[in-house]
Amino acid sequence: MYNKGTATRTHIINTANNLFYHQGFNQTSFTDIAQSAGIPKGNFYHYFKTKEEILEDVIQQRIKNIENQLNNIEELNLQPADRIRFFISALKNNKNGFAQYGCPVGSIITELGKTQLALKTKSKMILELIQNWLSSQFQQSGKHKTTANTLSRHIMVRIQGAIVIAHAYEDKSCFTEEINQLLEWIDKEASNAE
Amino acid sequence: MYNKGTATRTHIINTANNLFYHQGFNQTSFTDIAQSAGIPKGNFYHYFKTKEEILEDVIQQRIKNIENQLNNIEELNLQPADRIRFFISALKNNKNGFAQYGCPVGSIITELGKTQLALKTKSKMILELIQNWLSSQFQQSGKHKTTANTLSRHIMVRIQGAIVIAHAYEDKSCFTEEINQLLEWIDKEASNAE
DNA sequence: TTATTAATCAGACAATCGTCTGAATTAATA
DNA sequence: TATTAATTCAGACGATTGTCTGATTAATAA
To answer: Exposure check for chain A: N or C terminus, fewer CB within 10 A?
Structure first.
């Protein structure tokens, strides 16, 4: 069978992924994606029937990326609490993007959460994936079995908040500082048994 | 002079304010505002030449509202630290709106921060207004003169984060819990001199 | 080679966007 | 009352939106 198409499809998803992040979902048009990908607009319908379908595939791809990232951390042979620290520290690598465009997940949920609830629900899965992983680490540490959900949600809150403010102020150093504070909080919290 | 117009103008701003919050700026059309306000589209040009101009006036009105709110707190004859607690506690009154539509300021900054930087800069002034007020309260308390900016920014981070997550999960109780945690943190932090 | 499927691509489609006109209407001023 | 200015309002404007044809080319299978 003829399957050059899968490469083209992946190329479209990657292009759309960046544009959705940099411009927002509703502010990114079919024409934008087509031009940016170097693929004529008429060719799109062969791969995706609607813009929503593109976003759904973008989300699936993001989920895969994060799952890979989390799996890589698990293979590092760290203690659960150190896995959490590792994950959060690694976010600092994205500080430039966060300060310029916000969180790729949070910003799209904020956008879609107003009027496009079906798409929002799908995007939300990425946040849940991360929070569940954090929660699982807290449980594995043995010290926070009943508070794992609260603790992991609190981390999500502070990460999202740090990104929103860093984006609003266009100040990446403020993101770094808030993350460092969060790491200190974890050091204290992780040493307290419940 | 004939000035029924000022009432109409205010009515347009109020209508647009709600729609921008509930639908987002770019997802709200002139037609939406016109229909929702019960004013023919052609009449708009008499008051606003562009949609941007409407947003600018919406922001000005929001700034006034928040300034009034902060002034009212100042008149309550509370200690600075209690003024901060009062302001943060009062946010819980908006939990339903936060869970359904996110933060009216944060969500519009996130949206405009991607491609409409001039409008974002104006929206950002609302966040700065609040943070400066918080910072001023910390300084007046006498205990946190050099760390007032860091402390106030941290509060902004946690408020914005709590709203983003409450909105993502459509869970207002999670907002309340995070705010209560924040209040506890302030109790501890405010009692520590620097 | 022939038949079949996969992929490309120019451009049409109705609907909607933000913007703008110009005439009609209303109210205040002279 | 006559004049002037403020306000109303139906609808046109070009540009852009997301969606969709249908003809064409490229690659595989029979």
So the answer is: N
